[in-house]
């Protein structure tokens, strides 16, 4: 499995903002996103793709990251 890196997430975010509008940049909580991206690499805790996506979405929706 290929995992997405923080710089890729930021680039995707910037592209979406460019296409549909919204606030650019990110706030001080970027480390929380980086942490979530690292945690999903642990297959012992997040063994399925569904588990990995659920973990990431939980963090995205519970913290204002961008």
Q: How is this structure best described in words?
A:
α2 packs antiparallel against α3. The chain contains three helices and no strands. With 66 residues, it is mainly alpha-helical. It starts with 5 loop residues before the first helix and ends with a helix.
SSE layout:
Layout: H1 6-20, H2 30-39, H3 49-62
Helix pairs in contact: 2-3
Sum this structure up briefly.
This protein has 66 residues and is an all-alpha fold. The protein has three helices and no strands.
H and E order: HHH
Q: Give the C-alpha Rg.
A: 12 Å
Instruction: Quote the distance from N terminus to C terminus.
Output: 26 Å
Report the sheet with the most strands, covering strand number, pairing sense and barrel closure: none
- State the helical fraction: 55-70%
Main structural class: mainly alpha
Please tally the helical runs, counting DSSP H or I stretches of 4 or more residues. 3
Characteristic key phrases:
single chain, 66 residues, mainly alpha, 0% strand
């Amino acid at each position: 499995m290929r995992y997405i890196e923080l710089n890729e997430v930021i680039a995707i975010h910037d592209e979406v903002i460019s296409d549909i509008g919204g606030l650019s940049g990110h706030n001080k909580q970027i480390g929380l996103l980086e942490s979530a991206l690292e945690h999903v690499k642990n297959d012992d805790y997040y063994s399925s793709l569904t588990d990995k996506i659920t973990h990431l979405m939980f963090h995205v929706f519970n913290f204002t990251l961008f």
